[in-house]
Amino acid sequence: MRSLAKLLVMAFAGGFGVALAYRMTPEAMAVVVGVVFGVLATIPVGLIMVAVARRQRDEPSVRLQQPATPPVVVIQPPVSAPQGRAGGYWLPEVLPPLYPGPERDFRIIGDEE
Question: How many domains does the chain have?
Answer without folding.
Answer: 1
